[in-house]
Amino acid sequence: xxxxxxxxxxxxxxxxxxxxxxxxxxxxxxxxxxxxxxxxxxxxxxxxxxxxxxxxxxx
Length: 59
Prior knowledge:
This protein is mainly β. It has one domain. Helices cover 8% and strands 32% of the residues. It has one helix spanning 54-58, and strands at residues 3-8, 13-18, 32-35, 41-43. Strands 1-2-3-4 form a four-stranded antiparallel beta sheet, with no helix packed on it. Strand 1 (3-8) and strand 2 form a beta hairpin. The longest helix has 5 residues, at 54-58. The chain is elongated and about 30 Å long.
């Protein structure tokens, strides 16, 4: 699994983000990443992307 370190807007600190398997077939080019600590989902590499906390996405 790919990982990067970025600022997490939910944790308010730098955290490790993991790239989950892409259901759309983008592979390593997928822009979806998840904070390994809190599960916040973010789009990285997309201008104007919004943060979607994992709890809101599951609702």
